[in-house]
Amino acid sequence: MWSNLQRWWGVILILVAVSATVWLGATQQLVLYIHPRYVVFTVVMAALALVMGVLSLAIRPANTEEAVAPRGWSRVVGGVALLLSGAVALSLVLVPPTTLSSATASQRDIVGSTVGSDSQNADEVENADDELIASFTVVDWSSLLRQTSDPSFYSNKTADVVGFITASEDDPANIFYLSRFTVTCCAVDAQPTGLAVYAPDWANDFEVDAWLEITGSFEVNPSSRSDLPLVLVPETMTVVERPSEPYLY
Amino acid sequence: MTTTLPASVDDHDHQHDHRPRRSRNRLLWLAIGTIGVGAIFALRAFTGELGAVGVPGLTADLLTLATSVIIESLPFVVLGVLLSIVVQAWIPEDLLMRYLPKTPVLRRAAISLFGIALPVCECGNVPLARGLILKGFSVPESMTFLLAAPIINPITIVTTHQAFGFEDGILVGRILGGLAIANIVGWLFSLHPQPNAMLTGRFAQQCAVGSHGPRQSRTEKSLDIFMRESSVLMPAVFIGSLIAGAIQVAVPRDVLVTLGSNPLWSILAMMLLAFVISVCSSVDAFFILPFASTFMPGSIVTFLVFGPIIDIKMLAIMRTTFTAKVLLQLSLVVALMSAFIGLVINYVV
Question: Model pTM?
């Protein structure tokens, strides 16, 4: 029993992992974990492994190794490995797919992040038309904010951005960060970027991690406890569904 | 459970019964496998619709990160197993050996260049390296292959070039550095008096049995290799990803990034980062791209040379083949050499 389980455990694990992958691909949720450029390759290899795994179960190759009954510590280590990998396999099937949360965002330097630092150039945006400005994301705006904090630059520009709430440490009652993760390879390298939003007592209406669409403009920071020069002062704040592609690339 | 009458059946009948029963058995297990996979899909589709299940933020992020490492490395693991199957079951016995130089140093140099033709990253290389040992390569030779291939594989070169171009000697430093480390480590381990003592008991036993097992068709042999390689690799991939996810949640990323601008500290920080995040070499250039402005070029080369060889997930996978002592020596040598390469680039460029 033990040696049979050990022989087939890997096939069971790989079948679970590739089934989960194929399902994520079919429901278009693979982008929660990897950059879109790897999606096709990942699904193709997963499908191959799925076929090989089921076939190897069917053929059930003869056992060429002499079964060595594990003893003592190696049995304990083997048991722990079995349990841990089994737990991960269960989580792959049972836990609903989700994005990284604000807990990771605040742990990865949301303000100092230089992601997409060149995504927009202040000189070119100076006289941009409304349509272009309406398309700006959290990352575009924070790249502009890093280049200039001159209030007049932002006076005639209305931001319309989507992101999730990460709490601010300096002035948690009045300011939160509207944040997005940027992914270059997979969720492992996700870098958070956040716009400071000035909304007194925001916690009464919204929860951390909630997705919001905010329209508003950048103004001089009224908060005395935060040293950011400019903040986004909202005109409207609407709770929205998490976008189907929650990460920016 | 068998339903045949044990004693009363003579040999003759038994011979005739054998084949159909075997293929009936196969159909049965094919059905079991298909239904099992169907059940996994049904369960996944059901739980996927449940919405958040009240897992607290950091635990959820730990699982998301672990899942991300698994999904990112899985296709490369599968590709590696498939190539290992090709090497072991489908190409002629002596094809690889015939054209290799006889002098050990040149031989290892040739082997370190194998990777140019093989688009596998490090986790896929372990099954391939195991296949090469079973094919008759010596342990140091296959180690040379194992270290060089993930760095000079075509996908890695293309993605590194996409990410950095030829700027700051990062691409060139990575390729030359990787080849140098692979050859020097191969040479160091070739000094070992008993190369087979570097292998784990289970794998050494498998090497001793070699290809003298029962006669199998090529298809059977291929599926046999698939089954054996997944049973060795998958628990390691799963556990390695879990640990990598846990450490990332526990260690704040800014701690590493603040070390970035010092020529020495940034190298150590980069090695630590590479060790922890455990992404495959084919994609790690994109991983490190956002840090390019923070860290010095030599430190990035250190990340790109050290990461493909030593990281949490990779140690878990390599432990299936090599003893703990060998892995410790390997980690130490590779860490020193990649730090040296990074320092040279930091101070010279």
Answer: 0.79
